[in-house]
């Protein structure tokens, strides 16, 4: 059977992990790549063995050989590119967050309905083995009835790992391109999405969020992702860029978000801390998280996900006086992207809907934005208020 021919639109930082998903993919092939950065798209096409390289996504969508696309661009382009792709008859995998707001989510859901093509929001936590194991344990009743969830997110620094060029940060701190909220929206989509995945729909949210410039702390430590010399290798040869974060780049940390689940006396918390004195062991970014779920008979801890900050087994469970450790899984974050890509192309072939649906993605956006609105207005916010 012929493989699904996929085009990646946006081949920047995270697309490198998506590309891994086509190396040994029985159902999908990386056929085309597209990026407005011409030298980058050429490099990627060569490196990943893509047959076509485009600098305009409309050209890629006009290519009849493309069956499906993955949209991996800055957030303000998610809805316009996703809708155009569905209208061009392509299946769509949309990187998180699904779009900038609920109106755009609705337009994407409607475009998917009209086209009859598969649409899913790609949220890699759904494929992280420790998260998946925790969810399986929870659903099997291993700790009884789920009662509460605590999610902790840490931003620190690290010696090695990805060097993030200035351009990748610039759009993230421009609200018109990112939707606003490096942590509450960009990263938050993962955490609020996970909170809903594990315990269900949310009734109301309250939060405190501190906004402060990131520059002094990062600059003091010469953190390469913001200030310092970036080595950018393109078709024109290597060039160096001296970059500094503008004062108006605000990070939404520290923060605490609390919420109540619908139709239940069940609560959740999301706690965010940034300290560049915390060393984060990571192959990727100096950020990590852990999760604690309490059930009526015990606890599940997810200790491993984005990075490797804690030297603990990926999943630990306590029940009836017994602590069980689970290490029999591929806990590397990169593996979740490979699994997520495979699920996309497999689902197209099998004619099924993979996680997340458009409606689920929309619900997560409402949760993220309810947390932001609560801090702004100092009141409880119901996610349905976000329209
Ligand atoms: N854990 C995760 O799943 C995860 C991690 C990082 C990023 N992301 C998401 O992936 C997406 C991209 O993030 P990134 O970190 O790779 O950003 P990036 O800035 O590294 O890459 C984005 C790429 O899009 C390209 N681009 C911009 N406009 C374009 C256009 N009109 N047509 C085609 N290409 C265009 C840019 O040139 C760039 O190469 C975002 O939605 C982000 O939230 C997800």
What CATH architecture label of the largest domain applies? 2-Layer Sandwich
CATH topology annotation of the largest domain: Dihydrodipicolinate Reductase, domain 2
Strand order of the largest sheet: 8-11-12-7-13-14-15-16
- Poorly predicted ranges: 219-242
Q: What is the number of domains?
A: 2
What is the CATH superfamily of the largest domain? Dihydrodipicolinate Reductase, domain 2
H-E order: EHEHEHEHEHEHEHHHEHEEEEEEEEHH
Specify the CATH class of the largest domain.
Alpha Beta
Biggest sheet statistics: 8 strands, mixed
Beta strand count: 16
Distance between the termini: 43 Å
- The overall pLDDT, averaged over residues, is 91
The number of helical segments is: 12
- The 3D shape can be described as globular
Q: Determine the structural class based on helices, strands and strand pairing.
A: alpha/beta
Q: Round the Cα radius of gyration to an integer and report it.
A: 21 Å
| Strand fraction | 25-35%
Question: Could you state the oligomeric state of the chains shown?
Answer: single chain
Ligand inventory reads:
nicotinamide-adenine-dinucleotide
Structure explained in plain terms:
It is a single chain. The protein has 387 residues and is an alpha/beta fold. The protein folds into 2 domains: 4-122, Rossmann fold (3-Layer(aba) Sandwich); 126-331 and 366-385, 2-Layer Sandwich (Dihydrodipicolinate Reductase, domain 2), CATH 3.30.360. It has 12 helices and 16 strands. The strands form 3 sheets. The chain has an 8-stranded mixed β-sheet. Strands 3-2-1-4-5-6 form a 6-stranded parallel β-sheet, sandwiched between helices. It has a two-stranded antiparallel sheet with strand order 9-10. α4 (78-87) links the parallel β4 and β5 (91-95). The radius of gyration is 21 Å and the shape is globular. The structure holds nicotinamide-adenine-dinucleotide (NAD).
């Amino acid at each position: 059977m012929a493989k699904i021919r996929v085009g990646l639109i946006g081949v920047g930082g995270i697309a490198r992990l998506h590309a891994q998903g086509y190396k040994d993919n029985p159902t999908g092939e990386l056929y085309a790549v597209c990026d407005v950065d011409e030298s980058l798209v050429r490099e990627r096409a060569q490196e990943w063995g893509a047959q076509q390289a485009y600098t305009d996504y409309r050209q890629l969508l006009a290519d009849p050989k493309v069956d499906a696309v993955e949209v991996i661009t800055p957030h303000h382009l998610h809805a316009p590119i996703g809708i155009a792709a569905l209208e061009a008859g392509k299946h769509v995998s949309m990187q998180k967050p699904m779009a900038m707001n609920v109106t755009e989510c609705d337009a994407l859901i409607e475009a998917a309905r009209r086209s009859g093509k598969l649409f899913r929001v790609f949220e890699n936590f759904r494929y992280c083995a420790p998260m998946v194991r925790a969810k399986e344990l929870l659903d099997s009743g291993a700790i009884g009835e789920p009662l509460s969830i605590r999610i902790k997110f840490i931003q620190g620094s690290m010696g090695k790992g990805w060097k993030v060029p200035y351009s990748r940060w610039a759009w993230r701190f421009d609200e018109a391109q990112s939707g606003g909220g490096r942590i509450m929206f960009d990263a938050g989509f993962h955490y609020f999405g996970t909170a809903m995945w594990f315990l269900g729909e949310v009734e109301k949210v309250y939060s405190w969020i501190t906004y402060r410039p990131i520059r002094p702390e990062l600059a003091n430590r010469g953190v390469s992702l913001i200030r310092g010399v970036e080595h950018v290798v393109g078709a024109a040869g290597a060039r160096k860029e001296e970059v500094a974060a503008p004062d108006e780049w605000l990070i939404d940390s520290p923060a605490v978000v609390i919420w109540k689940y619908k139709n239940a006396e069940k609560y959740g918390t999301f706690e965010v801390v940034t300290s560049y004195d915390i060393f984060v062991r990571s192959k990727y970014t100096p950020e990590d998280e852990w999760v604690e779920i309490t059930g009526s008979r015990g606890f599940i801890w997810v200790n491993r996900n984005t990075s490797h900050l804690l030297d603990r087994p990926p999943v630990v469970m306590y029940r009836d006086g017994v602590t069980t450790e689970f290490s029999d899984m591929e806990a590397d974050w990169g593996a979740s992207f490979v699994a997520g890509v495979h699920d996309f192309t497999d689902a197209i072939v099998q004619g099924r809907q993979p996680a997340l649906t458009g409606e689920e993605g929309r619900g997560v956006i409402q949760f993220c934005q309810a947390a932001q609105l609560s801090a702004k207005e100092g009141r409880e916010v119901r996610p349905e208020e976000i329209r």
